């Protein structure tokens, strides 16, 4: 059974790094899409369960991307409850976005697994787009990316690959019950990633390894909320301890092609001007 083109697909985080790409691809294929986020119509808010049923009304499939992270307090319970409500409301196919090497994310996978829908789980590595569409954009623009990531390599995955896999799973047969571990084609240290970005921009951008404490203190000093600092330091200490320093074959298994390389991502993002720094103001008139 391929999903019907008349029922909407609810795309949670539909304006975010992966959801936006999933929504664009589904629309291009002629599938009705409903963006599930606080700015959607109707709005969807993980923090307000009264918004869930209206967002699900009439939907036949859903892309489930939790915000901010499946390791955040309450995430496991919320994703499980959402999946059960979705199935009760008529959703027959779900794709869950999860992270690699996070015990909490695996609990969330478990909570969704028994909901009764055709389920595909995508366990993704760190997104390349964190450098261009998220919290690493500003440091890149400032010319210095200071992170407690040491020299642990990570197989950064391109959000375009995640979206391609999610859309295949939402619209085609053969992906239900699959767990796809999605990584890029090679291991890349943060120093190498920043080096690729510097090459793509032609500017000097350097990576500075710092300790977790130094990172947390600097983030708090820049006004990053305490719970976000806690989540980031958790991710850097847990997920970047070497446990994920290996590539996986999820993109090839799901799509029959190789994943996009970080260098290609950096070249394309650089060519689009995402890391262009506005020219400094001239001398005062
Ligand atoms: N980033 C990574 O490297 C990475 C790696 C592996 C897994 N993941 C997983 O990917 C998921 C998404 O993370 P992300 O970093 O890619 O974020 P993202 O999708 O780029 O986050 C932004 C999206 O979340 C929506 N949003 C924010 N607050 C919301 C709320 N209270 N209720 C509903 N929607 C809300 C935003 O729309 P509105 O502002 O309109 O609400 C926007 O669509 C997380 O579960 C994370 O664990 C991320």
Order of helices and strands: EHEHEHEHEHHEHEHEHHHH
Bound molecules: NADP nicotinamide-adenine-dinucleotide phosphate
Helix amount, in percent? 40-55%
Count the DSSP helices: 12
Quick one: how many beta strands? 8
Output the radius of gyration.
19 Å
Mean pLDDT: 94
In one word, what is the shape? globular
Reported for the largest beta sheet, the result is: 6 strands, parallel
Strand content: 5-15%
Structural class: alpha/beta
**Unreliable runs, pLDDT <50, ≥5 residues?**
none
Query: Which strand order spans the largest sheet, edge to edge or round the barrel?
Result: 2-1-3-4-5-7
* Distance, first to last CA: 68 Å
Describe this structure in words.
The chain is built from twelve helices and eight strands. The chain is α/β, with parallel strands linked by helices. The strands form two sheets. Strands 2-1-3-4-5-7 form a six-stranded parallel beta sheet, with helices on both faces. It has a two-stranded parallel ribbon with strand order 6-8. α8 runs parallel beside α12 (262-271). The longest helix is centred in the first third of the chain and has 14 residues, at 75-88. The structure holds NADP nicotinamide-adenine-dinucleotide phosphate. The site of NADP nicotinamide-adenine-dinucleotide phosphate has 26 residues, from β4.
């Amino acid at each position: 059974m391929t999903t019907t083109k008349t029922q909407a697909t609810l795309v949670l985080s539909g304006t975010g790094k992966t959801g936006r790409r999933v929504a664009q691809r589904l629309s291009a294929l002629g599938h009705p899409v409903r963006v599930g986020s606080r700015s959607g119509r109707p709005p969807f808010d993980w923090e307000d369960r009264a918004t869930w049923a209206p967002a699900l009304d009439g939907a036949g499939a859903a892309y489930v991307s939790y915000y901010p992270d499946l390791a955040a307090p309450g995430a496991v319970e919320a994703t499980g409850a959402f999946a059960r409500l979705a199935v009760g409301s008529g959703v027959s196919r779900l794709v869950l976005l999860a992270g690699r090497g996070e015990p909490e994310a695996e609990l969330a996978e478990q909570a969704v697994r028994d909901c009764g829908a055709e389920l595909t789980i995508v366990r993704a590595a760190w997104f390349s787009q964190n450098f261009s569409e998220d919290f690493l954009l500003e440091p890149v623009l400032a010319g210095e990316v200071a992170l407690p990531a040491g020299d642990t390599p990570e197989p950064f995955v391109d959000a375009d690959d995640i979206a391609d896999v999610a859309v295949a799973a939402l619209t085609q047969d053969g992906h239900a019950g699959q767990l796809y571990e999605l990584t890029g084609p090679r291991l890349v240290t943060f120093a190498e990633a920043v080096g690729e970005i510097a090459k793509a921009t032609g500017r000097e951008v350097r990576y500075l390894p710092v300790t977790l404490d130094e990172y947390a203190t600097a983030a708090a000093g820049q006004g990053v909320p305490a719970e976000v600092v806690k989540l980031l330091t958790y991710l850097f200490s847990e997920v970047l301890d070497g446990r994920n320093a290996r590539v996986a074959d999820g993109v090839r298994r799901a799509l029959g092609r190789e994943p996009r390389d970080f260098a290609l991502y950096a070249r394309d993002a650089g060519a689009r001007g995402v890391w262009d720094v506005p020219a400094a103001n001239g001398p005062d008139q």
